[in-house]
Write a structure and sequence with these properties.
Shape: globular
Number of strands: 14
Order of helices and strands: EEEEEHEEHHEHHHEEEHHHHHEHHHEEH
Strand content: 15-25%
Radius of gyration: 22 Å
Number of helices: 15
Distance between the termini: 13 Å
Strand order of the largest sheet: 5-4-3-2-1-6-8-7
Largest sheet: 8 strands, mixed
């Protein structure tokens, strides 16, 4: 029997998330998280789904990513699922930035590693951590195919009219300044899952995907291909997010430097970590914000209204970009769970064919579901994202059964 298991690794600067999947039926065999790597209080949480055993959790010093992955391998081995298993066909790695170079999942070799490293200046927070995870995994299993799946890849189908900024072309090209977009694995998965929910092929459906979590992005997907997305050179552009500002007049930065006497690093911290919802009202948890709104908190209400205003603008813009919209899909933590956000986002858009069913919208459920009225010209749906399954699927499609 051929090997069918794929280990998915998402390596952050101080964490490693992992899932082991069997691609015969896309089932999860184990999931886990190592966090606070490099600290005395490092923690590993492992859930062996294949055996049905209780989750295991322990804390203690984990010095680096090499030690973290060895610990993960040991936990998997306890369940007969170790990295040395002959049933493991590949390891799929989430890589945040692939630039223009990587348009599809790619088997990792030294040339690929060098290019991911070359892209560090446009992804300084993410690509170094992704590289560390890749190198550690390759050292542990040098004989096993390792595949990079890029957050930016799904968005490389954007036309130049959407991907280019209106700045001097030579300067932009010299510094690789363009709109790349992120959350691509989520947008790819959700756009296809939405088509399936409608009983249609992806190439026959135009979808606006709203990935709303602490980080948030929108995409316009025409016939299975992304034609526009809200994030740009970095994940800072676009929607109002938990701690990020989203769209803003670039001259604000010059003003803060000249008048506010703020440094580049201070402005970077302000816009990425102290803005968005947390900057507007002191909270970046939508549940807490909604609680405050319901209690009459004006600051929370203003933050919510600004969030919805920006979201609604992107829905309208992408409606115009696509020309015909078959469905709008809400996904990720806020999109899947915050009924008030979904209701407010489409309120007043009835003339565009968006008719929400309040009772359907209020239902909490795990799977994909329709929340629009039966007579809504545009389907409104909640489609839970599954980035790990998307990474595993792309990895297995590339190297499985070879």
């Amino acid at each position: 029997m051929s090997a069918t298991r794929v280990l998915v690794l998402n390596s952050g600067s101080s964490s490693v998330k992992y899932q082991l999947l069997d691609m015969r039926d896309s089932s999860r065999l184990a999931v886990g998280l190592v966090e606070r790597i490099g600290e005395q209080s490092s923690r590993l949480k492992h859930t062996p789904l294949a055996t049905g055993a209780d989750p295991r959790e322990w804390t203690g010093p984990i010095a680096d990513h090499d030690a973290a992955l060895k610990a993960v391998s040991e936990e998997l081995s306890k369940d007969g699922l170790g990295l040395d298993s002959p049933e493991l066909v590949a390891i799929g790695h989430r890589v945040v930035h692939g630039g223009k170079t990587f348009t599809e999942p790619t088997v990792i070799d030294e040339t690929v590693l060098a290019e991911i490293e070359r892209l560090i200046p446009v992804a300084p927070l993410h690509n170094p951590a992704n590289l560390t995870g890749i190198r550690t995994a390759r050292a542990l299993r040098p004989d096993l195919p390792q595949v990079a799946v890029f957050d930016t890849a799904f968005h490389t189908t954007m036309p130049e009219s959407a991907a280019r900024y209106a700045i001097d072309v030579a300067t932009a090209d010299a510094h690789r300044i363009r709109r790349y977009g992120f959350h691509g694995t989520s947008h790819a998965y959700v756009s296809r899952a939405t088509a399936k929910l409608l009983g249609k092929a992806p190439e026959d459906v135009n979808v606006i995907v709203l990935h709303l979590g602490n980080g948030a992005s929108a995409s316009a997907v025409r016939g299975g291909r992304c034609v526009d997305t809200s994030m740009g050179l970095t994940p800072l552009e676009g929607l109002v997010m938990g701690t990020r500002s989203g769209d803003m007049d670039p001259a604000v930065i010059f003003h803060l430097m000249r008048v506010g006497k703020m440094s580049t690093d201070e402005i970077d911290t302000l816009l990425n970590k102290k803005s968005g919802l947390i900057g507007l009202c002191g909270d970046n948890d939508m549940r807490e914000i909604r609680r405050r709104v319901d209690e009459g908190d004006e600051q929370a209400k203003l933050a919510f209204d600004i969030y919805i205003h920006r979201l609604k603008k992107y829905i309208g813009a992408y409606y115009a970009v696509l020309g015909r919209v078959d469905a709008i899909a809400f996904t990720a933590g806020v999109g899947e769970n915050a009924a008030p956000v979904r209701e407010a986002a489409v309120a007043g858009l009835e003339e565009l064919g968006l008719l929400l069913d309040p009772e359907r919208n209020a239902v909490r459920a795990d799977g994909p579901r329709l929340i629009s009225r039966a007579n809504s010209r545009v389907t409104i749906a909640v489609v839970p994202t599954d980035e790990e399954l998307e990474i595993a699927t792309q990895t297995y499609a590339l190297v499985g059964d070879n």
